[in-house]
Design a protein that fits this description.
about 45% helix; alpha/beta; about 325 residues; four-stranded mixed sheet; five-stranded mixed sheet; single chain; 11 helices; rod-shaped
């Protein structure tokens, strides 16, 4: 006895019309008749008496109906719940973040709000490299990335982004060195630090290939063309804070970086001439072709948090002092 046969049988007992039941299940009358005949053959019992245009249920048919009706209801509810569970499991919202960065406050608040609003969605956060963030956005395994937008080719048309903040450029150094430096640090004093300390930068791609030392980027950012710092490429950005804390060199950073929460390092704002506009643009990057209602809802929550913050209000509706 199949689930379909159960449904046909119960409906036929209740409606006493092959035409009505066939229309109810969107099947032809010959198909319905064949299914009922197969059920009777399986049970070796006649369930209905057919005469002209009338359908009469036999005593055996009524006995089957009385026992099967509640079981059929339980079975269909169970099947529906299993299907819904499978659908819910497929709803995954993954937020990526570059491995050396911190989540921006509006994003962190939005994650909690989003999770409460969509309990059926499995929300996860992954830390990974810029290259893997890009691949994840393009293949749909990452829904949105909280990252530095300049790390993505926005001119390609494959990505879009929502700006959250513009952050200045900072010198990351050991706590002891930071205590001896002014904050912010003038550009000439910063250059003097680099005359005595290695500049530690991350520069290996996901395949272990060493990137070119970015002297042109350094010169353009700081407007210093007659000085070449001693740059050491360290591989993963996650390997740099320990070396900086140990005094093996200094690094460059944005404000919302892991350096900011490391008690053994200091972040000092570099006083770069404003005309050069040196900054890190933080935002939410997402793939053009993988936008969804969930993504749009998440972006809206981030916008609400940003608006509340700029208005001096707490996202939960309390005034900030």
């Amino acid at each position: 006895m199949t689930i379909a046969q159960m449904g046909y049988f119960i409906a036929l007992v209740e409606k006493r019309s092959f035409t009505a039941v066939a229309e109810l299940f969107y099947v032809t009358q010959p198909t319905l008749s064949r299914q009922i005949m197969n059920l009777e053959a399986e049970l070796e019992t006649q369930l209905f008496l057919r005469k002209s245009n009338t359908v009469t249920v036999t005593p055996a048919g009524m006995a089957l109906y009385d026992g099967l009706k509640p079981l059929y209801g339980q079975l269909t509810r169970l099947i529906d719940s299993v299907k819904r569970y499978d659908d819910l499991q497929r709803q995954i919202f993954t937020i990526g973040i570059a491995e050396e960065l911190l989540l921006d406050d509006p994003v962190q608040l939005a994650i909690g709000m989003f999770s409460g609003k969509h309990p059926e969605v499995n929300v996860s956060i992954v830390r990974t490299s810029y290259a893997k963030l890009q691949r994840g956005l393009l293949d749909g395994t990452i829904s949105v990335a909280n990252t530095i937008t300049s790390s993505f080719d926005m001119q390609s048309g494959r990505f879009e982004y929502f700006r959250i903040a513009l952050e200045g450029i900072y010198l990351a150094c050991s706590r002891s060195l930071g205590a001896a430096l002014p904050d912010p640090i003038p550009l000439d004093r910063f250059i003097e630090v680099l005359r005595h300390k290695k500049l530690l930068l991350g520069g290996f791609d996901d395949f272990g290939e060493r990137e070119n030392i970015p002297l042109d980027v350094f010169h353009e950012a700081f407007g210093v063309f007659d000085f070449e710092p001693d740059i050491q490429i360290c591989g993963s950005p996650l390997s740099i804070p320990a070396q900086v804390a140990a005094g093996l060199g200094v690094s460059l950073s944005n404000e919302s970086n892991l350096f900011a929460i490391d008690p053994k390092t200091a972040l000092i704002r570099i006083d770069v001439p404003s005309k050069r506009g040196t900054c890190y643009e933080k935002g939410l990057v997402f793939a053009t072709e993988h936008q969804s209602p969930l993504l749009r809802n998440f972006l809206e929550l981030v916008r609400e948090n940003m608006a509340a913050s700029s208005a001096g209000d707490d996202p939960w509706g309390e005034k900030k002092g």
